[in-house]
Amino acid sequence: MQALLQQAQNMQxxxxxxxxELANTEVTGNASNLVTATVTGGGELVSLTIDPKIVDPExxxxxxxxxxxxxxxxxxxxxxxxxxxxxxxxxxxxGGLLG
Length: 99
Known about the structure:
The two termini are 15 Å apart. Helices cover 63% and strands 18% of the residues. Residues 93-99 have low confidence and may be disordered. Strand 1 (26-31) and strand 2 form a beta hairpin. Helix 1 (2-24) runs antiparallel to helix 2 (60-98). The chain is α+β, with helices and mostly antiparallel strands and 99 residues long. It has helices at residues 2-24, 60-98; strands spanning 26-31, 35-40, 45-50.
């Protein structure tokens, strides 16, 4: 029983370390190489860059679509990073120990 508790504590510590690493890791997504968005592994938007040549006051909708696409791309990459980092820990879990 003591070994099981120790293993659970170790997994908890590994999970906390992985989550901290994710919060400090930045991932960049883009849309047509005209808009780039950078998010942390935790999903926080930290940077948004818009190429000036896409700014057209007559076509704001395209710019809005590109911004959304870049943020979605960055968030998808961040989610993949989370799955890579936490996948083994989340899948193993206590369920793997008990059943």
